[in-house]
Automatic annotation (TrEMBL):
CDD domains in alphabetical order: HATPase_UhpB-NarQ-NarX-like
Protein's name in the database: Signal transduction histidine kinase
GO terms for cellular component: membrane
Organism of derivation: Permianibacter aggregans
Signal peptide range in chain numbering: none
């Protein structure tokens, strides 16, 4: 079933649909040469043009499941061809309003300059068809007016895209800050535990060892009762010393970082990508450097997918296998060969190898780009 699940701003989409409906109504029923009065071949062609434009517009405003860039361009091309078809069948200035709607979508797939150039050429073509059939000296004013209207729509779209990118960047930085705060807290806790462990060992451990030596010396003194008491005291002291050492050993254990909680802020703000993070709820990392490497690896995987792939879906699986933490990631985009190792992947490889881990990546059969990363769990 087809679901309307807009990826552009909803109210602007509804305005576009309303504009199409109004122009379609005027063209079909009201205009001087209404579609209902045309011969059926022309009426059919014009109707296909109307349906083609709204189909392309609705397809453009939907979230795509794969090859987003290519489908966006196809949707825009369908709208352009539909406008041209309607203008060839029946010249109407109303068609130039469709150009304004079409032009406002162009900045999503190309630069502002190219959008303005494509709009200008389209208007020249459509108005040229009008002049070819009905010569009119006011064509230059009509061209200037609709070009300015279209330029206004293009500039609004450019500013909206820049604002959206700024919001995405801010959300990404905020999520990265939250994850970094968790790493800093884990590092601070680690250093504090190590400091307490050292102090405890240096003070109490020293005193208890001295006490054990004194009791050992006293055991050589006379008296059977004294010997029994000293033996018991020495035994208890050794037990106490063992307990202290066990406590120190426990305190030296590195703090645990919950992997899901560490990565959740990062994946929650990823734009234009359906991201599935598959991590065991209680998967813990007991080393702060390993946790940081997992965080940076996840960020690099997401960044690569957004920058270098037209993927719409990305799956990241993190699990523990025996003594290793495994990260498997795969998207549904197109892989460009040969695959070059950029600064991001090169930096990630250095991080992984510094922890005696391994990193592999490449193109998966019948799928997109994959990354496999293995790190020692401790």
């Amino acid at each position: 079933m087809f679901k309307f699940q807009w990826k552009r701003t909803d109210h602007l989409v509804f305005v576009g649909i309303g504009t199409w409906l109004l122009i379609a109504y005027l063209s079909v029923f009201v205009d001087r040469r209404a579609v209902i009065d045309m011969p059926w071949p022309q009426a059919l062609g014009y109707s296909l043009g109307l349906l083609g434009f709204i189909t392309g517009f609705l397809r453009y405003t939907q979230p795509f499941t794969f090859n987003e860039g290519q489908l966006e361009r196809f949707a825009l091309a369908l709208q352009w061809v539909s406008i041209l078809l309607m203008q060839l069948i029946e010249v109407r200035s109303l068609h130039l309003i469709y150009v304004i709607i079409w032009a406002s979508q162009l900045p999503h797939v190309t630069s502002m300059v190219r959008s303005l150039l494509a709009t200008a050429l389209t208007l020249v073509l459509l108005i040229g068809i009008d002049q070819w059939q009905h010569s009119d000296q006011s064509w230059i004013w009509e061209l200037a007016m609709y070009f300015l209207f279209s330029s206004f729509g293009i500039l609004l779209s450019v500013h909206a895209l820049e604002a959206e990118k700024a919001r995405d960047k801010l959300a990404e930085k905020n999520a990265e800050l939250q994850a970094t705060q968790q790493l800093l807290a884990a590092n601070a806790k680690e250093h504090e535990r190590l400091r307490i462990a050292r102090d405890l060992h240096d003070s109490m451990g020293h005193h208890l060892t001295s006490l054990a030596l004194q009791l050992e010396l006293a055991s050589h003194q006379q008296g059977e009762a004294l010997q029994n008491t000293i033996q018991k005291s020495r035994h208890l002291t050794k037990l106490l010393l063992a307990d202290v050492r066990a406590t120190v050993s426990d305190m030296r254990a590195l703090p645990s970082v919950n992997i899901r909680e560490l990565l959740q802020p990062i994946v929650a703000v990823v734009p234009r990508l359906k991201l599935k993070l598959d991590v065991e709820r209680e998967l813990l990392c007991h080393d702060a450097k390993t946790a940081e490497t997992i965080l940076r690896a996840t960020q690099e995987i997401i960044t690569n997918c957004l920058k270098h792939s037209d993927a719409s879906e990305l799956t990241i699986n993190i699990r523990q296998e025996q003594e290793n933490l495994i990260i498997d990631a795969i998207d549904n985009g197109q892989v460009q060969h040969p695959i070059a190792e950029g600064y991001g992947l090169k930096g990630l490889r250095e991080r992984v190898e510094a922890l005696s881990g391994t990193l592999r990546y490449g193109s998966a059969e019948n799928q997109g780009f994959f990354v496999h990363l293995s790190l020692p769990a401790s």
